[in-house]
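Forwarding the complex inputs:
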Amino acid sequence: MPLLKKGVFVEDAWIFVADDVPIPSKGPIVVGLDRLEAEGDAIAPARRLGVRLKAGERVERLAPHLQRLDLVALEFPVFSDGRAFSAAAMLRKRMGFAGEIRATGQVRVDLHPFMRRTGFDAFQIEDDARVLRSWRDADIAVDLAYQPDDATRDGPLPVWEARRRHRREAA
Amino acid sequence: MYRYDEFDHRFVRERTAQFADQVRRRLDGTLTEDEFKPLRLMNGLYLQLHAYMLRIAIPYGTLSARQMRRLADIAERYDRGYGHFTTRQNIQFHWAQLKDVPEILEKLAEVEMHAIQTSGNCIRNVTTDQWAGAAADEIMDPRPWCELLRQWSSLHPEFSFLPRKFKFAVTGAPNDRAVCRGHDIGLRMHTNEAGEPGFEVMVGGGLGRTPMLGKTVRDFLPVGELLPYVTAIMRVYNRFGRRDNKFKARVKILVHDLGLDAFKTEVEAEYAKGDHEHEVEVSGDELQRIRAYFAPPAYEDLPERDPEHDRRVFQDKDFAQWVRANVAKHKVQGYAIVNVSLKPIGGIPGDASAEQMRAVADLAERYGKGEIRVTHEQNLVLPHVRRQDLHALWQALERHDLATPNLGLVTDIIACPGLDYCALATARSIPVAQAISRRFEGVARQDEIGELKIKISGCINACGHHHVGHIGILGLDKQGKEFYQITVGGSGAEDAAIGRILGPGFAAEEVPDAIERLVQGYLKGRNDRTEPFLAWTRRVGQQELKEALYAAA
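Prediction (whole assembly, two chains):
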């Protein structure tokens, strides 16, 4: 599936391993949460490891494994299901996760600003001509936001911060 | 009033451009209707029975004269010459064309208005006491907090795709005119023993098909902790609120299913993690900036009584009736709060023509410091009028059919648009409201009956707040016929209660008689004139209420 990072489509080296399929012998892998908990310790420490969370699974369960993880994939089962926004925000801000947070499922361009601001930095997009076209030609940029944003440093300027700077300059 | 600074302007302009692009992509087919729906809803655009309906935000119900004139222009140019004020202090236009919507939004942006988050599963327009900043009983002005909440909730990255819609109401007075217990979060400002300002935080109120009153999760939250604390509530809701059934998705169901104590424990645990501290910083200097916009207007030093006003009240009984019903006590001596009724006898509750909107704008500038409020009861308010100007203002309002002296009386009816417009409705609301209004037309009789709030919804979604009506009327569909269930004893005020059903419902044409019988029962059964209808319903038993409602003709 097409993968967008930092505004460009890139090769995806990660293998998403289904729960009922044996773990392949090499390559970076993304496993389900239950499997991570059951078999995580058996995976070679040097191997790159990721986990995928379903929308209802508690992100707190990742706490004991975070050091070991390079990627967390969060699912949007339908694009109006916003639970993954909270999961991403908690991963970045509360749990200090610095690896890749990847959006999967119904990943639509109109969600992109919300995703970026909660800490997503990789977007796995359905291989569908219509959906891909909207990622190419939509004009969805809003480069201001009211909420302070410390999930991403390259996000829109928080209005309250802009005002504070404005006041400082005026003083 | 709050005024946009360069950043607010830029934000709304960018958001307007973004939505214009979404409309373009819908029209060229890049977006399917399923994908477009949540996007257009986040911008207040509904697809109704006959056309698109555009709902425009009036943050905490406050409008300037200039903004009101712009709404009049939009009514004329893009609608059929009128607009409909809603129970969420917003305005709706029912005849908009999709292709015109970006242009309407641009015209709104020019006067610091928008339609952001007036629908959809996000944080909706924040509502408050329509008399905020003017009411004699006010402890603290809620508007700076409403504005702070407005900004904080606008395109919130984490809370824009919630399980269901989410509504805030704030009051700064002990007499709750904002239905705080009927909202997902209700905030009541008060002070603690040390005299410090804070909020009582109520969560899980809501009407709809499962009416519930909000429950208190914090008696006293220091004002500075508002944003971090509501962030914790929102996060608990976003993560754990049900998404499998839209009728079970409001936060009231989560509070109910978990139980109040378990819900509180979740919220407090989330809050205790304390990583929302940046938002506390925000409220300090930012709140000062916002608060400056709500400084009191320049009041004159006036005597409490105006002899000329007193003389006119004495001589002109129509004026006296209007003053009695529609004028409320202001916190500043010599001033009054004027309620402008949008409930003419036999009219459509909450509708105003472009000509009436312009008249109100002119009168607000001439007599009311340029400020207008919209009430959840679908009326308008001029919050700061000199007592000595009341007579001239009344005469001018009369000329525009805006001086019906019925505030809080039996003909001041709330009604949703109902089956005449709404795709969700199961029955009509407006004709029922009109029929009741005509039945109780006489001013003297309305006065005799006293305070009586009738609220009508055309389906169980309860946009007409029928659950909290002193008399509530719910329109249903029974084998293809409209059918109305009547509830009694509800209240949206500080004594909030959900009305009770007394028995079988009525056909549309039977409703005015049924209300008449209840009113007769009340007039006969009340202790005396000081016992209002609501108090009577609470004092007497179910049996007596039933007998009144179902009395043989």
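Chain A has two domains: 3-139, 141-171.
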